[in-house]
């Protein structure tokens, strides 16, 4: 069936901006982009009434928890959360149980995600067996099964020798090495950033060097080898500096930053509450400023949520005992739009979209992230006007663990289309234009 997305303000690129165009979708594809598409018999018409139409958002760092931790999240609940957040492509981390360290688990994740069908799921495979840091996985078979990169996210690779072996093998296979940078001998069981706030709460700190020492080590190792090296959830000023220098030398290093590290620092933590606990921790104001500068100048390539759902019981254990991690899929875009674009003017709307669509696709060599004829119909319609309060109890994710509950933000995704199919539509009709028409169209679909 043909679908015509009418009257959208369509994102072209950072330099070209927006154009008022209709998008004609047939099957999985965008087949035509025209000024005024004629309404055809049998075609479904969705009038988005001047709202923004952007490429489906891409999140290269999420945790879906299946297999093994289905009480925290499943592929289905994570996919629903992703679609609601405007995402059409996500890359889940391998720290499941069993760990995604074999082609069988990769296949299972891919098959389950296909059954669910709400978001494109591109899994990572582990670097070491069970993420134990002792023995390399069979990366060749992981690649054949469909992984887009290798990582031991959740833990750092402690041995430089092991990291070097991993890089050599990954390079040979053309896989990026995606690194959770954390030196255990420096992190030493800390629970939040090693700064004033940790002192105030009397809690053990994780110093910035726990991250940056690994970034430095890995950049040196990767320089020789030439592998694509990607830094996960970068959080410290020194790490940003190291990536900037490596890029200036022409090295193939990329980095991602999370919405929470861009918007919060350790001074914002009101109490030693588990909802504020994540790895890496919220660092100092100065680190946060360095992340913003790094994102702005392109040192940090992309934004990724590190969506890390946990149960409420686990997070209620407080800063000392709760597991690390917060959810992010359902709040990323409105939070960043409201704060980085509207309030602080740090990024333009176009730059923000670029860092959540075209750039991640480019960094990982994926054929998504742009709206054009012949591309997959991955589209997100965003309402920039309506302000709403973040209410964790309404999340589709099983994880309600966020420090952003109660924040009032704008920029909510109201319609998500992945591969030509509607994967999320806002229940509140006033947020889509022409409520009558919209409702009729929805009725037709049934
Ligand atoms: N970020 C987190 O705080 N937690 C992640 C692990 C990780 O991303 O390192 C998790 O799996 O819960
Ligand atoms: Zn990590
Ligand atoms: Zn993670």
Automatic annotation (TrEMBL):
Pfam families: DHOase (PF12890). GO terms for molecular function: allantoinase activity; dihydroorotase activity; zinc ion binding. GO terms for biological process: 'de novo' UMP biosynthetic process; purine nucleobase catabolic process. Binds 2 Zn(2+) ions per subunit. Zn(2+) 2 binds at residues 153, 180, 233. InterPro entries: DHOase, DHOase/Allantoinase_Hydrolase, DHOase_cat, Dihydroorotase_CS, Metal-dep_hydrolase_composite, Metal_Hydrolase. Its cofactor is Zn(2+). The keyword GTP-binding does not apply. Residues 426-446 are annotated as: Disordered. Pathway: Pyrimidine metabolism; UMP biosynthesis via de novo pathway; (S)-dihydroorotate from bicarbonate: step 3/3. Keywords: Hydrolase, Metal-binding, Pyrimidine biosynthesis, Zinc. The active site is at 306. Residues 50-237 form the Dihydroorotase catalytic domain. One of its GO terms (cellular component) is cytoplasm. Catalyzes the reversible cyclization of carbamoyl aspartate to dihydroorotate. This is Dihydroorotase. It comes from Thermoactinomyces daqus.
């Amino acid at each position: 069936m043909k679908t015509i997305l009418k009257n959208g303000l369509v994102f072209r690129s950072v330099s070209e901006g927006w154009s008022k165009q209709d998008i004609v979708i047939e099957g999985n594809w965008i087949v035509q982009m025209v000024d005024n598409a004629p309404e055809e018999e049998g075609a479904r018409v969705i009038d988005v009434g001047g709202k923004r139409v952007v490429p489906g958002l891409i999140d290269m760092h999420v945790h879906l928890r299946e297999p093994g931790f289905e009480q925290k999240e499943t592929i289905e609940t994570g996919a629903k959360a992703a679609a609601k957040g405007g995402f059409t492509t996500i890359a889940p981390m391998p720290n499941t149980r069993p760990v995604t360290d074999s082609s069988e688990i990769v296949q299972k994740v891919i098959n389950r995600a296909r059954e669910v069908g709400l978001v494109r799921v591109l899994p990572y495979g582990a670097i070491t067996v069970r993420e134990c840091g002792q023995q390399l996985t069979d990366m060749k078979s992981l690649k054949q099964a469909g992984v887009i990169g290798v990582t031991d996210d959740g833990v750092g690779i402690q041995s430089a020798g092991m990291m070097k072996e991993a890089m050599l093998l990954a390079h040979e296979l053309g896989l990026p090495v995606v690194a959770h940078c954390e030196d255990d001998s420096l992190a030493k069981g800390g629970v939040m950033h090693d700064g004033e706030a940790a002192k105030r709460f009397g809690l053990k700190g994780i110093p910035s060097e726990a991250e940056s020492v690994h970034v430095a080590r890995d950049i040196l190792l990767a320089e020789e080898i030439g592998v694509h090296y990607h830094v996960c959830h970068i959080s410290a000023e020194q790490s940003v500096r190291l990536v900037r220098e490596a890029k200036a030398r022409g090295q193939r290093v990329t980095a991602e930053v999370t919405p929470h590290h861009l918007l919060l620092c350790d001074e914002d933590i009101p109490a030693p509450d588990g909802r504020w606990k994540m790895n890496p921790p919220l660092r100092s104001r100065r680190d946060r400023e360095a992340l913003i500068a790094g994102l702005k100048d392109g040192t940090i390539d992309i934004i990724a949520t590190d969506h890390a759902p946990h149960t409420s019981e686990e997070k209620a254990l407080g800063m000392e005992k709760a597991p690390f991690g917060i959810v992010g899929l359902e709040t990323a875009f409105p939070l960043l739009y409201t704060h980085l674009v509207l309030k602080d003017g740090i990024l333009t709307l176009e730059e923000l979209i670029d860092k959540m669509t075209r750039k991640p696709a480019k960094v990982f060599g994926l054929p998504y992230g742009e709206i054009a004829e012949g591309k997959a119909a991955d589209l997100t319609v965003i309402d920039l006007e309506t302000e709403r309060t973040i209410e964790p109890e309404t999340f589709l994710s099983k994880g309600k663990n966020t420090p952003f509950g109660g924040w009032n933000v704008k920029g909510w995704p109201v319609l998500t289309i992945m591969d030509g199919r509607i994967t999320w539509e806002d229940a509140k009709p006033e947020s889509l234009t022409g409520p009558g028409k919209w409702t009729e169209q929805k009725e037709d679909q049934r």
